[in-house]
Specification:
three-stranded antiparallel β-sheet, mainly beta, 2 helices, about 10% helix
Length: about 180
């Protein structure tokens, strides 16, 4: 089965500007995305950057979130029924989150066991909804939304190009590093 992995561009952040500088135009959701198509998840069949209408067709679509858009929190998984799990997670994470808990999407690690230490990913809910809605308008419906990196052992890392200023041609390099402690 073919798999199409779409990289959701990082969320726009506030940046310091020189006095009198014009605010650069941000990226509108749904314009262009980086993508890769594979049959075996190891060998790319196609890759590029384009609007969703130009992407190759695939049996499965995965949307990948940038490392800078996901915060990771190590907690003891609460013992709560599925219907009350979100409320229990919010109670555990309330002081650790930098945003109002109503504006954050929480995702529990797939191997989480109640009463055991686990990882919880937090993502800005409004931003994620806007990005997914833009894909849906283009008739692209991701089967999964995953982080580009997560806490794991052995450690993993990669370099990525970053924009210095939105809309400029200047770029920098960032090291994204993940290990068992975060």
């Amino acid at each position: 089965m073919s798999i199409l992995v779409i990289q959701i561009p990082p969320r726009q952040r506030l940046r310091a500007r020189s006095p009198g500088a014009v605010e650069p135009a941000g990226r509108a959701p749904g314009q262009e995305y980086d993508y890769v198509l594979s049959d075996d998840v190891m060998t790319p069949l196609a890759e590029g950057r384009s609007a969703p209408a130009l992407w190759p067709k695939a049996g499965q679509v995965v949307a990948a979130l940038s490392e800078t858009d996901v915060s990771w929190h190590r907690i003891t998984c609460p013992k709560a029924p599925t219907a009350r799990l979100r409320a229990a997670l919010v109670g555990v994470l309330e002081d650790a989150l930098l945003a109002d808990t109503d504006t954050v999407h929480l995702a529990l690690a797939p191997d989480a066991v109640a009463g055991q230490p686990t990882w919880v990913a937090a993502v800005d809910r409004g931003w994620l909804r806007v990005e997914l809605a833009a894909l849906e308008l283009a008739q692209i419906f991701p089967d999964r939304v995953v982080p580009m990196a997560w806490p794991d052992d052995p450690p993993i890392g990669h370099f990525a190009e970053t924009e210095v200023d939105p809309g400029s041609t200047a770029h920098g390099i960032a090291l994204h590093w993940a290990h068992a402690e975060g």
